[in-house]
Amino acid sequence: MTLLLRSGQGVLTLLLCLVALVRLPLLAPDAPFPFGMETTALILLLIAIGALVSFLPIGRLARVSVLLVTAHLAAWLLIGGISGNEGQARLSYFLLIAASWLLGWRCISELAEIKPSSRQFTMALRLLIPAIFGAWILILWEAITRGAGIPFILLPPPSAIWDRITGSLPILAADVRQTILKAVLFGYLVGCAAGFIVAILADRVAFLRRGLLPIGNLMSALPIIGVAPIMVMWFGFDWQSKAAVVIVMTFFPMLVNTVAGLGASGSIERDLMRSYASGYWQTLCKLRLPAAMPFIFNALKINSTLALIGAIVAEFFGTPIVGMGFRISTEIGRMNVDMVWAEIAVAALIGSVFYGVVALAERATTFWHPSNRGG
Amino acid sequence: MPDHITRTNLRTHRTHGWPHRMTASPASVVSARKLGLTFQTNDGPVHALSDVDLEVEKGDFVSFIGPSGCGKTTFLRVIADLEKNTGGEISVNGMTPEEARKARAYGYVFQAPALYPWRTIENNVALPLEIMEYSKAEQKQRVQRTLDLVNLAGFGNKYPWQLSGGMQQRASIARALAFDADLLLMDEPFGALDEIVRDHLNAQLLKLWATTEKTICFVTHSIPEAVYLSTKIVVMSPRPGRVTDVIESTLPRERPLDIRETPEFLAIAHRVREGLRAGHSYEE
């Protein structure tokens, strides 16, 4: 009994295997490319081995390695056999997918309980666990869309999206160049710099502080959907108008955060600078800006995602025939949903990298802040 | 009876004739006359300081003691030009406090260490030197010297948050010493530390005072601390903040920690306590 309790997923997996065995074959009788006997047997065997090993007291690392191999090999075989047989999967197919998913789950939960012994190992675990997790999202997505024959228009399987990405690299590259490298990067840099400079001016000049900050507030409330067509009217169809939208969107978060950050230094620290007869700029550079860094990085992170959204949405309102937003809006009209998903995937990837770079710079700059000291 | 002696000293001090111009005797570092400071608040004016007369001479170690709200910190802040007096006159090194501040005449040690967490201890101590535009070589040499002075050599590369509270406060003293101001203003610098660390730092501070020959103004809540450290103890009382007694210490300048058990020490402590009590009954 204690042996069974050791792995709940293992018990469930074996049960699913049994039911699947009774309900074979995996695909409908008229499927064009049915699973061979050997393949089906191999899949069942792999899953059974994985489930049984999960009970064995053979050391965590050994269990994890066996689970890792069996779960993913079984899933690989299952997914490999379904392509071409869209919509032909029977209950037993989904039961086996569920069974291998349970093994994958078991694998992750065993991994999560490992107490890493070295730094490299910690890093590897931190990458491996979310990687397996993400892989399973894709595996389930692929198996369900293909197995159940979900219409391509509603949700294409990830393999089709991947094929589209690899097949249209030149188009995607041109879109990235237009939208990210021109509009987003330029708009982000100019918008953040302008917000920062105006914040310092407002700090120095009381008249700006009183007059401009409330107006800035108003600017932040402008709906981007309304601003984008105006910017296209002002700056033309090319990337300049998108950069303008990005500037409008990123300016205000930076302004507000920098103003808040400049007020963040303590009164004792400021008295200290006064006791040294320190000038305005010296106090700014040596005390107030370093103290404002956590706030400024906060704005940089918020803006990294805002800029991407702004540039893509702005392209819906007129562009030359290139750009990520343009591609999304035209390809959806032509029912090329896989291209839309390809653009979404690329945008998500670039957005994550963008955010990650800013977050890394933050950790290097504000290592002293209580929230970063541990790591 | 030491009580008798100090009282005599006190009388001479009080009857000491004030010079007519603000430039007091050349040895006078801080000279306050009828000094007053009133804060305007929503609940009406608050008299933080009223009619304070005081002379601090070169090389003095002056302690300010009194209950909260007696204006001892405010007085220190007026000397430092962090507050402006609203009445009377005050001179620091023969100048107005503002001129003295601009001439970098004093180092200020606050209640909290106020070290910048993004700078190492070394760079924190170098901060005033950077602002005052000392050369790189000079900065390095001064940082080394002052860190040695407060026994923090070898900790220069640490960040403040990696050090204990006592070490942080020592680093902040090093920072105040780094640019060789003759006047050191200390506002309850050891208030947040435990008694054992505090004793240790007090002994170190006396040694430091002896080697550097600075003039020190020291605000404290603790009677033993005030008596142990000072050549002159200023007893203050609240509402309005004013000086009730000025006690010249008869203890020698060389003071081991166990001097605190001698009758002479206890007599001065008693005198301070009496002064504090008198100020309190006056209020009621």
TrEMBL record, chain A:
Protein name (Swiss-Prot/TrEMBL): NitT/TauT family transport system permease protein
Entry keyword Glycoprotein: no
Domain ABC transmembrane type-1: 194-364
Major location category of this protein: membrane
Subcellular location: Cell membrane
Swiss-Prot/TrEMBL keywords: Cell membrane, Membrane, Transmembrane, Transmembrane helix, Transport
Pfam families: BPD_transp_1
CDD domains found in the cross-reference section: TM_PBP2
Transmembrane segments: 40-59, 66-85, 91-112, 124-144, 180-202, 214-237, 243-264, 306-328, 340-361
InterPro entries given in the database record: MetI-like, MetI-like_sf
Domain of life: Bacteria
Membrane topology: Multi-pass membrane protein
